[in-house]
Design goal:
The chain has no helices and 5 strands. By secondary structure, it is an all-beta fold. The strands form 2 sheets. It has a 3-stranded antiparallel β-sheet with strand order 3-4-5, with no helix packed on it. Strands 1-2 form a two-stranded antiparallel ribbon.
């Protein structure tokens, strides 16, 4: 099952939308390039087990 969620780039602060594969687990981490500035963001994804609400925290990959 897939859903979409919005996150804010750790570099430029602009919002971006990403696809989340809920079947990959309730906590996930992967790198995705910002759709605006093209810099790599580490996405830390947490999915609420009951409501399936998605929370995304970001960090710069080069830290």
């Amino acid at each position: 099952m897939q859903t979409t969620a919005e996150y804010y780039c750790a570099y430029c602060g602009e919002p971006s939308t990403t696809f989340i594969d809920i079947s990959s687990g309730l906590t996930q981490q992967y790198v995705e390039d910002c759709q605006v500035c093209c810099r790599p963001n580490i996405l830390y994804i947490t999915i609420d087990e009951e409501t399936l609400d998605v929370d995304i925290q970001t960090d710069c990959e080069d830290r």
